[in-house]
UniProtKB/TrEMBL annotation:
Domain of life the protein comes from: Bacteria
One Gene Ontology MF term: DNA-binding transcription factor activity
Residues of the HTH lysR-type domain: 1-27
Taxonomic path: Bacteria, Bacillati, Actinomycetota, Actinomycetes, Pseudonocardiales
Family: Belongs to the LysR transcriptional regulatory family.
The protein's name: Transcriptional regulator, LysR family
Length: 273
């Protein structure tokens, strides 16, 4: 101990203990050093405790991403089932941009996300089917087809469709059903960035928008009606996670999905890349 004290004194350039007394006592410099050292040790303990709390929070927090309108009953049911399995789990819902739904899972922004097609880069990601959703077309209320119970895709040929200048063109074309089976080229109207903008553009009669039934279920606009498109394939909603993620909470989330998934869907509907 004496050697350690002398080494410390050499480091600070001052005597820290008075060796002429028995027992030895701290010098004035030593007393000041001791007070600061105790505070530093306490701060270090607090820092370690903070990191430990953060580590525990990570172990019990699950970040689930969703796009506009996708956090519907299926999400609530999934979270309820997860909490039955993991009562201590803390779920954070994070709204994602349309073009970041899968990328946010890959880069760790979220642990999982509810995604809709198309996903052009599936590397390192796993997709578990949640459900299939019908596709509908958003029309202005005064549109000739607005009062129909359903429309065929060919009846929408020639109608300008909303686009998104900031989105992947593959995404835009998939939702616009471009190319059309009829061979008629799709015309594009105004570019939109949000669901609110999309509905306003439709209400103004500037364009139509083919979208998922989830939008009709969760969005209302006095100038817009949603009509089912009878001959377009449904839109799959999938739970996207990282293939290599072996965390207990992600495993519990996948199990919760299997528990709530309707029996009519294929329970083995999982794809990995």
């Amino acid at each position: 101990m004496s050697q350690q004290v002398r080494k410390l004194e050499r480091a600070v350039g001052a005597e820290l203990v008075d060796r002429s007394t028995h027992p030895v006592r701290p010098t004035e410099a030593g007393a000041r050093f001791l007070a600061e050292a105790r505070e530093a040790l306490a701060a270090a303990d607090r820092a370690v405790a903070a990191v430990d709390r953060y580590r525990r929070e990570l172990a019990t927090t699950l970040r689930i991403g969703f796009m506009t309108a996708s956090a519907g009953p299926q999400v609530r049911g999934l979270i309820d089932e997860l909490r039955r399995e993991e009562p201590e789990a803390v779920v954070r819902l994070v709204e994602l941009p349309w073009d970041r739904q899968a990328a946010s899972v890959r880069d760790g922004t979220v642990d999982a996300a509810l995604v809709r097609p198309p996903v052009t880069d599936r590397a390192g990601l796993r997709f578990d089917l949640v459900r299939h959703e019908p596709r509908v077309v958003a029309l202005p209320v005064r549109h000739p087809l607005a009062g129909r119970g359903a429309v065929a895709l060919a009846e929408l040929d020639g109608e300008p469709h909303v686009t998104g200048d900031e989105l992947d063109p593959v995404w835009v074309r998939w939702w616009a059903c471009d190319p059309r089976p009829s061979g008629v080229p799709v015309r594009y109207g105004p570019s939109v960035r949000t669901m609110g903008e999309q509905l306003e553009v439709v209400a103004a009669g500037q364009a139509i928008a083919i979208t998922g039934g989830f939008v009709a279920d969760s969005h209302r606009h006095p100038g817009v009606v949603f009509v089912p498109v009878s001959d377009v394939e449904p839109c799959p909603l999938s739970l996207c996670t990282r293939t290599a993620d072996r965390s207990a909470l992600v495993a519990a989330l996948r199990h919760a999905l299997r528990a709530i998934r309707p029996r009519r869907d294929d329970p083995a509907a999982t794809s990995r890349s």
